[in-house]
Amino acid sequence: MILPVILLIVLTLIAGLAPLRIRKNNSKIFHLALVFSGAYLLGITIAHLMPELFSGPLGHQEVALWVIIGYFMQLLLNYFTSGVEHGHLHMADDDHVHGSLTMVTLLAAMGIHALLEGILLSHSTYVDTHQHNGGLLTGIILHKMPAAFALMSLIRCNYHSWGWPVFLMSLFSIMTPLGIFLGEYLSQVDWVQSSWLTILFALVTGNFLHISTTIFLENSPGHKLTGAKLLVIFAGTALALVTEFLG
After folding, report:
1. pLDDT of 52
2. In the chain, how many domains are there?
3. Domain span at residue 31?
């Protein structure tokens, strides 16, 4: 168990701290990094989260309902945080993401997902498709690294210094290891129903669907779909698919 924990923390930090080398005053590169992050999140949501949800203990219609609820929960959060005219994630001239609650929600959603992945590693009976933990660990590491890069690209929108971004990324890096230990504990007490985890997973998936599409469709000025932006969207989505299939 020690080796997976070390690998998860170290590799997540390496990938997550990489965006700090991108200067925020380089507007074009910074916007493209955000587009990449949104495309990656969308790809991993469709290729990784949704298949697991529909292979779980709940019926397809019930899963779909919870995903939709999660989507509209995020929509309502954006509305009440940023107002009618800023009901979406929009990059302003100062490169700040409107709505601090949107960022908090994203951090919470990705943290919950990372925690659930740790639980899956230690308690793989949650979803029938997980045959062994070795392949699952590989898959989690492969998509956790670009996920950390994507998350840090978004965190940097709200902070000028390195302090809070490094702290938040360090916190994110330990979520999956915490999930491993939590899963070991839950497997011993055996009181958590798998359907509860599925509902939580579905809500997170709905959040991801809204957040990811909003990021890569609406972060650029004028919402224009340039050739460079289109290539980055394809690259982010392709990376999500490759890391998922290799896992």
Report:
1. 82
2. 1
3. 2-246
